[in-house]
Amino acid sequence: MARKPAAAKKPAKKPAATKTGKYEYILAAKRKGALEITFNRPDKLNALNEPMAGEIMDAMASVENDRKILCVILQGDERAFCAGADLSGFSDKPAERYDNYRARYNTRKNRLLFHYVQAFTKPVISAVEGYCLGGGFELAMFGDIIIAGEAAQFGLPEGRHSLIPGAGGTQNLPRIIGAALAKELIWTARRIGAEEALGLRIVNHVTPKGKALAKAREIVEQMMKIGPLSIMMSKQSIDRGLDMSLAQGFQQEADLSYLLTWSEDRKEGLTAFAERRPAKFKGQ
Which residues are CB-neighbours of 144 under 8 A, at least 6 positions away? Predict the structure, then answer.
């Protein structure tokens, strides 16, 4: 007697995204010269809270002296890079207001993160898909390069709550696009798309939807041919020079350039050029 065919197995349900590894609110992985940090609060549009900010800084600190890691890539998911700050756990009781004022300087991680990213010695690239609003937009501007998927949206909506951008937005955005345009965007809370952001030089590249990370990785591969000490020193020279007079900028550029003449990597770069081969830099 022929056996009855076994009932077809129902496909297993795809598990929901889970928080794995060392961190709860981010995912961190090393890949081809970069530490890729993925914000992992999809139910909150990757809004930034205290624990998440602390995890980002911890992950970045773990690679600052790792010579195999050239830069950091920050990303969210297809819905949102980061929709801003999550203040749901923050209380501001009258008796604690001066304590909270103090805490902003050296204690509250979601404030310290922005300055940590600014002072990081390695490049920080933001691969933006979806919403990049408020504190998320401000965080991206504290980095070095922004890549946007074509569906990305940028904006500073704080004025709708009778606030101002308080994590660098009123300072960084005017330096990128000029005071008049920055005022318009802040005073209207208007969101702009990826192509308009490209036209305003807020972003470096616009990619098809879902391809911002791939473009960021492509840039990292190109950077891997450059001496890491050269990248570190030029980053410092550019960032510091923006707040210096031109004469001061020239002087610090000359000093940083001279420091590099002592490095083993400079000798290797010149030797490789003479021998017509790729340089093998050590970061020393």
Answer: 123, 124, 125, 235
Residue of 36, 55, 129, 138 with catalytic role: 138
Q: How many helices (H) and strands (E) does the chain have?
A: 11, 10
Dist. CA 42–CA 25, nearest whole Å: 10
Structure tokens at 108: 């509250």
Active site residue 129: no
Neighbours of 117 (CB within 10 A): 23
pLDDT tens sequence across 146-179: 999 999 999 999 999 888 898 999 999 999 999 9
Cα-to-chain-centroid distance, residue 103: 24
Rounded to whole angstroms, the Cα distance separating 231 from 225 reads 11
* Structural domains for the chain: 26-223 (3.90.226.10), 228-274 (1.10.12)
Active-site residue, 268 included: no
Q: What is the pLDDT of residues 197-215, one digit of tens each?
A: 999 999 999 999 999 999 9
**Which pTM value belongs to this model?**
0.85
3-class secondary structure, 69: coil
Structure tokens at 98: 């001066």
